[in-house]
Design goal:
By secondary structure, the chain is of the alpha/beta class. The chain has eleven helices and nine strands. Strand 1 (43-48), helix 2 (54-65) and strand 2 (69-74) form a beta-alpha-beta unit. It binds phosphoric acid mono(formamide)ester and norvaline.
Length: 299
């Protein structure tokens, strides 16, 4: 029976913890130059309908390091964009490949692909969520703080795909998530949450960050965002992560950003490059955690 990763809820809390053990082991093996090739002879198709630096490169390198290969496929080079149905494409790709990673706009596309593919499908970001990012982020928090339960994350900024995966991930893993976003961007409904974590919206960023172990943000304008984007940026201005906000936690807090960052917008360079920032360790861990995901789903 194949297993997909379309949302964090596709994994149980125990499965996530096992994944983190494997991630730490793979990280250690890589550091010590120990060869580990469980995916020898296997191929991952990577369909990208949106730009990417981290996701594309870390998955591609990850497959290579595990002994397999990755094929970078853009929507506009496949027959998919010339009218071949997702159902037919899913069936054909399943005859060649051992897994599919997809980054696209509509989340339903990923659900449909997974339904018709007989091989594992991994969500590499949709308009609705970004599960591989948040799994790597929670692993990073465990690595830095030594635990996951009862850690408080203050997410400050636009309420987007990354925020949605944070809600699912924090809830599943027993974390506390305070989301500070402008009321006009607060979603009407929350994703299905399981687990015993706590998710709450606190409009005022200075209140939301109180006692936070982690302050987290993402871009104000996501790929594919439409509408009055200038107005959106103006509304989000009070939600910038800067030194004043970091000081307002009242404790030593770490700063995270999934990247790419727009310096001077959602975060200042002073904070992004500051001593409390762990953003580049966070980016590195994408590789280790995704290798664990690949080994778990594809071998
Ligand atoms: N954080 C992240 O997914 O980065 P990319 O868009 O560069 O893949
Ligand atoms: N919310 C951002 C995340 C980029 C990794 C976007 O969807 O563009």
């Amino acid at each position: 029976m194949k297993k997909d990763l379309l949302s964090i809820n596709d994994f149980s809390r125990e499965e996530v913890l096992t994944l983190f053990e494997k991630s730490a082991d793979l990280k250690d093996k890589r550091k010590n130059g120990i060869e580990h090739l469980p995916l020898k002879g296997k191929s991952l198709g990577m369909i990208f309908n949106k730009n990417s630096t981290r996701t594309r490169i870390s998955f591609e390198v990850g497959m290579y390091e595990l002994g397999g290969q990755a094929l970078f496929l853009t929507g506009d080079q496949l027959q998919l964009n010339r009218g071949e149905t997702l159902k037919d494409s899913a069936q054909v790709l399943s005859r060649y490949l051992n897994g599919i990673l997809i980054r696209t706009h509509g989340h339903q596309e990923v659900i449909d692909l997974a339904e018709h593919a007989t091989i594992p499908v991994i969500n590499g970001l949709t308009d609705l969520n970004h599960p591989v990012q948040i799994l790597a982020d929670i692993f990073t928090i465990k690595e830095k703080l030594g635990k996951i339960e009862n850690i408080k994350i203050a997410y400050v900024g636009d309420c987007n795909n990354v925020t949605y995966s944070w809600m699912t991930g924090a809830s599943l893993m027993g974390m506390e998530l305070a989301i500070a976003c402008p009321p006009e961007f607060k979603p009407d409904s929350l994703p299905a949450l399981s687990g015993n974590g706590k998710v709450e919206f606190i409009e005022d960023p200075l209140n939301a960050v109180k006692d936070a172990d982690i302050i987290y943000t993402d871009v104000w304008i996501s790929m594919g965002d439409t509408g009055d984007l200038e107005k959106k940026e103006k509304i989000l201005t009070p939600y910038q992560i800067n030194q004043k906000l970091l000081d307002a936690t009242g404790k030593k807090s770490l700063v995270m950003h999934c990247l790419p960052a727009h310096r001077g917008m959602e975060i200042t360079s002073e904070v992004l490059d500051g001593k409390d920032s762990i953003v580049f360790d966070q980016a590195e861990n994408r590789l280790h955690v995704q290798k664990a995901i690949l080994e778990t789903l594809l071998s």
